[in-house]
Specification:
Elements (H helix, E strand, L loop, with lengths): L26 E2 L6 E9 L5 E8 L5 E7 L20 H5 L1 H22 L2 E5 L6 E3 L7 E3 L6 E3 L5 H4 L4 E5 L7 H11 L3 H9 L3 E6 L1 H13 L4 E4 L6
Antiparallel strand pairs: 1-2, 2-3, 3-4, 5-6, 7-8, 9-10, 9-11
Helix pairs in contact: 4-5
Length: 236
């Protein structure tokens, strides 16, 4: 049975902004201490009205509330507004899938925030002046006064993503020359077979890692091709 009478469960939301790991979910439940805490949001409209769910798969404490969804959030395709209700039983059935997706969104959010930060409160070891980040990312810091600094290797979240994605061509695409050539580029089939893929859709036309899928996505979007990426793809 699910319980919604312990406000401590809401502390799970703090994981969004304060976390030590690249994959903060599942998180330690603030009620029972077991690493079974989850978070999901769902945007209901373009003005960021939505809902927030935090819950624990172990002790079944949860909270659900109306919520202004942050602009970096993306809804999972698994759920529509009609699939969601206050008790997170259906969310819990997909907890692993949700955690994986939310971890990627958090990594993208953190990456964008780091790239937008140019000044820090870290003092230079040589002269004490606050260091700056001249790399538009978390690749290093340098002192604007004496020039002392350091650089380290850095990889965008999309590069660190080890998920294999697949692109499925959907029904409803036209067979114009531009569309066929786009399918040809993505599926690596000849033009005749690319046309046949359109006519026999839905068809899987590509499998690959996140950066590869990003390139294929750009090709398809340019020609307004109808497609679906699975699992949910969090990158623009």
């Amino acid at each position: 049975m699910w319980h919604d009478d312990n406000d401590d469960i809401m502390k799970l939301y703090n994981i969004i902004n304060v976390h030590e790991f690249d994959t903060p979910l599942p998180a330690a439940c603030p009620v029972c201490g077991i690493k079974s805490g989850h978070i999901y949001m769902h945007r209901y409209d373009e003005e960021d009205h939505g809902g927030l769910w935090v819950w624990c798969s172990n002790c079944h404490n949860f909270s659900h509330s109306s919520f202004k969804v942050p602009d970096w959030w993306r809804n999972l395709s698994l759920f529509t507004i009609f699939d969601l209700h206050a008790v997170p039983d259906n969310l819990d059935e997909q907890a692993k899938y949700i955690d994986d997706f939310v971890n990627k969104l958090i990594a993208i959010k953190d990456d964008k925030k780091a790239k937008a930060t140019t000044t820090t409160d870290i003092p230079c070891e040589k002269c004490g002046t606050n260091m700056i980040n001249p790399y538009s990312g978390s690749m290093g810091l340098t002192c604007p006064n004496c020039g002392w600094g350091w650089v380290t290797s850095y990889y965008d979240p999309i590069v660190r993503d080890t998920t294999e994605y697949q692109i499925t061509l959907l029904e409803g695409n036209n067979t114009s020359t531009e569309t066929i050539r786009a399918i040809n580029q993505v599926s690596r089939r000849n033009l005749i077979k690319s046309k046949q893929l359109i006519e026999s859709a839905p068809q899987v036309i590509f499998k690959g890692d996140a950066p590869e899928v990003h390139d294929m996505k750009e090709i398809l979007d340019k020609e307004a091709v109808l497609y679906r990426i699975e699992p949910d793809y969090p990158y623009d």
